[in-house]
Amino acid sequence: MQNSKQMKSLKSNKNLYILLAFILLGGLSSCSKWLDVKPEDKFLEEHLYSTPQGVAEIVNGFYVKLGTDALYGSNLSSTMLDVLAQRYRISSDKHPYYYYNNFSFAERVVENGIASVWTQMYNVIANINDMVRILPTVENGMTQDQKNQYIGEAIGLRAFIHFDLLRMFGKPYDETSKTEPAIPYYRNLTTDASPIESSEQIAAKILEDIAEAEKLLAKDPIITEGSMKNFNNNRFNIYAVKALKARVYQWINDKPAALAAAQEVIAAQDKFPWVSHSAITISGPNTDRKFFSENLFSVFNSKLNDLYNRYFNPNLLESEILSTSKDNIIEKVYENNTSDYRYVYLWPISTTGMRTFTKYLELSDIKNLSRFMVPVMRISEMYYIAAESSEDPKEGLSYLNTVRQHRNIMVDITNANSLRTELTKEYQKEFFGEGQLWYYYKRNKMTSIPTTNNAWRNMTIPLSHYQFKLPLVETTPR
Fold it and tell me: Entry's Gene3D superfamilies (predicted)?
């Protein structure tokens, strides 16, 4: 619920929240270290939970943390995961993502980057678990419905974070690998390390949390207000929970369940309308390059313009920029289709003659808070999941073509035999800067993928490159 009023209230008690976060998170390394909780720490915690405003600040803290560069503000959206998916040309060993691009997982910079993702994700989970434990017990003037809303969001986020940890640190899911150790699952703020469980066990717990979140979010305001009021799509609302359910079932290859979950979200399409032609084509301070109305869930990164200037500004050196090179390999990704919104308006030709990525170029209208948002889940993905999961290939093509039409591609795909190929192309086109392509490649065990480093020709990668090793902070000691 990161509307402007709440953002102001968050800033007003920033020091108090940071101190509480330090207390809760500073003694944790994936919840495996003993905590040293002092009486003054307990006082700060009780102070925040004593008012509805304090609870809102705690929940906002989850989202603020998720929106940092270390997590969905950069690494898990436009940089680290997209670099691994070979989206950018990186030839200089001076580039900060050079070793990621070459799958050099033993390099210290890569080890530290992945370990940071692990630690910070579990730190957010620890904060969530503490809130889920405390909030039901306090009397602070909140109604039960209000408490349910916050707890439902938190449990949904817990499932969401664990799922992405599973997608990063577990093996590609199949009947053999699903029984192998993957990650620990935490539902309590504990001083003991939870056991490392199999992918199958983790998926089951994620689905349990999703079911609980759906119950608690039965009166989510987004159901009656829609996605844009109060930035309902900038928090983990009930439709984000349902979309997560579709993702999970797709990951474990339960196509009927994935289809049903995706269709639940598609049925709420009116709350996430397709970006309009005028919104994307208008020149001025509010060009919608993120297709914001379609976002099911976004995170807030106040430093998003810094990210753009650090990695995507056309004036950067080749050893600094994330681009598809001066050869404009991006033309091959989008098949040089100058009707496609995603190509023409997100990859304009810069003054250098090179097409550069502008999804995160700052909007000049300071009143438009969407300028700080990073898409994490969007309605188009539900159509892709439905297309892939439909038993009838013709129905699958219908879902696929619906998205294409709303990207201004008016030539439908009619050959059902090409559905898989066209879906792959769509993931490559649709989710630039959002980190989803790497997961798609992994889920489909793709050992031959196109790389911008070789003019969009295929390169061979082993399946082992799709699994991050558990960091030493987790394994030593347990």
Answer: 1.25.40.390
Q: Are 330 and 32 in contact (CB under 8 A)?
A: no
Q: What is the number of other CB atoms lying within 10 angstroms of the CB of residue 286?
A: 15
C-alpha 40 chain-centroid distance = 35
What are the tens digits of pLDDT across the range 98-135? Answer: 999 999 999 999 999 999 999 999 999 999 999 999 99
Contact 357, 304 (CB under 8 A): no
Q: Which two tokens stand for residue 224?
A: 């009656």
DSSP letter for 435, please: S
Question: Do 183 and 165 meet the contact criterion of CB atoms below 8 Å apart?
Answer: yes
> Where is average pLDDT lowest: 70-74, 206-210, 255-259, 359-363?
359-363
30: left (phi over 0), alpha (psi -120 to 50) or beta: left
Q: Which residue, chain included where needed, has tokens 């980190």?
A: 435
DSSP 362: P
- Give the pair of three-digit tokens for residue 176: 């053999």
Instruction: Give the integer Cα–Cα distance in Å for 16 and 58.
Output: 10
Across 427-477, the runs of DSSP E, i.e. the strands, are 448-451, 457-460
What is the pTM for the complete model shown? 0.92
Q: What is the dihedral sign for C-alpha 424, 428, 429, 435? A: positive
The residues spanned by each domain of the chain are 4-475
77 Cβ contact list (under 8 Å, min separation 6): 374, 375, 376, 433, 434, 435
The CATH label, of 2.60.40.1180, 3.40.47.10, 1.25.40.390, 3.90.940.10, for the domain at 4-475 is 1.25.40.390
H or E, element range at 260: helix 255-266
